[in-house]
Amino acid sequence: MKHTKGRWDATLFDLDGTLTKKSTIPDFLMRSFPAKKLALLGGVKALPILARYLRGAPFEACFPDLSEVFLAGVKEGRLEEAGEAVIRKIWKQGMRKPVLEALLADLEGGRPVAIATGGLPYCAQALARKIGAEKEIKVFASEMEFEGIVGRRIPRILIGKEKLIAVNWARERGETLQAFGNSRGDEEMLDAVERPWWVTPSGEVIPWLRGKKGAKMKNCPHHRGEKQKNIETDIK
Asked: In angstroms, what is the C-alpha Rg of the chain?
């Protein structure tokens, strides 16, 4: 596997669909809601928002509204418990093994590691605790405003250019950076590092086409529907 060879100084990981096989966000939101009956009510309230998303509204436009429906009034301790529960559920069967192994190898090698997630920080923090690296793994995540114990709308969604904050953090720790991502929200992060890796829906780790140049590759958002012709990149 090419992503295990070579030299690099620090690594950035997306969470949902990259380190995990599926998004942690739906399960996290449902587990955070105070009670089953209220969860049903929240589900009803969320239907119009989900409908907007299915009709093509961008995720970042829907996530704040969904979070407000499910998380308003929820104590932060409950959010931490929900993150722990999600990671326990997916730990054995729901993780991307090659990417998780890359993260563990970086930790063992003493390289700085960060998780940059478009969700709230609780699942990423729970994952760091699960592998015993809460202090070693830096977590960058979307932010939820809190007024006492009352959750408010999310003022900053960590996708796209917002993920460059993680790149800047890593750049202070080395010249050659590596990053793993799987969605359009990761593109700017991948374009900004020397060793960018794309995680396909099947879990294959392949080189990312920086700036839409180079080989045409399967499961790459720049070339959807096109067959893989080459795997020539400038990654060394």
From this structure: 18
**Range(s) of the domain holding residue 210:** 2-223
pLDDT tier at 113, thresholds 50, 70, 90: very high
Q: For 3-30, what is each residue's pLDDT tens digit?
A: 778 899 999 999 999 999 999 988 898 8
Using a 10 angstrom Cβ sphere, with 0-12 exposed, 13-18 middle and 19 or more buried, the burial of residue 36 is exposed
What torsion do the CA atoms of 12, 191, 236, 95 make, to the nearest 10 degrees? 40
Can you give the pTM of this predicted structure? 0.83
Q: Which CATH number covers residue 174?
A: 3.40.50.1000
Three-state SS string over 195-207 comes to EEEEECCCCCEEE
In a domain, 229, yes or no: no
Mean predicted confidence (pLDDT) in 65-84: 84
Total domains in the fold of the chain: 1
Q: Is the four-CA dihedral 162, 96, 172, 126 of positive or negative sign?
A: positive
Q: What is the per-residue pLDDT for 197?
A: 96
- What pLDDT, on the 0 to 100 scale, is given for residue 195? 96
Terminal C-alpha separation, the chain? 12
Residues 6+ apart with CB under 8 A from 75: 149
